[in-house]
Amino acid sequence: MRQRIIVCPVIQNDGEFLLCKMAADRGVFPGQWALSGGGMEPGETMEAALRREIKEELGDELIITDIKPWAFRDDIRTKTYADGTTEDIYMIYLIFDCISANRAVTFNEEFQEIAWVAPEAIKSMDLNEATRVKFAQKGII
Question: pTM of the full predicted structure?
Fold first, then answer.
């Protein structure tokens, strides 16, 4: 089984969290709301990987002003690819608290939609399991 180290930003701006609705036909959590993030590449530091993933998935204009390591966890997930094939992957999540100076987001094809969400509204969303666990650990849901 392949192993991936995933960097995952929990991005806040003015008390709201940035959530992304995953594409319906691919990924680890198709069609559910999640945090952005992705795999580290060989030779990258954790922060370099985190900043690259934010830029790739959320665009050049989102300004992250503060990054603090927060938690880590692991699990096994089944990833669905655009061609319909699947793969089980052992994932190690490195989770970071991030503050953004703005809300300028241009998301890529991995997401159907993005939203800035108040903490009290998060528990009613169709969150993927990993995101639900992260917000439960933070005491938000």
Answer: 0.89
Q: Which two tokens stand for residue 97?
A: 């608290």
Distance CA 108, CA 16 (A): 21
Only one residue has tokens 């300004």, namely 63
Tens-place pLDDT, residues 72-110: 999 998 988 888 899 999 999 999 999 999 999 998 788
Distance of CA 15 to the CA centre of its chain: 17
**DSSP code for 40:** P
Q: Over the range 73-90, which residues count as b (16 or more CB within 10 Å of their CB) and which as e?
A: eeeebebbeeeeeeeebe
DSSP 56-89: HHH-SS--EEEEEEEEEEEEEEEEEPTTS-EEEE
Angstrom distance (rounded) from CA 64 to CA 1: 34
CB-count exposure of residue 5 (10 Å: 0-12, 13-18, 19+): middle
Residue type, 81: Y
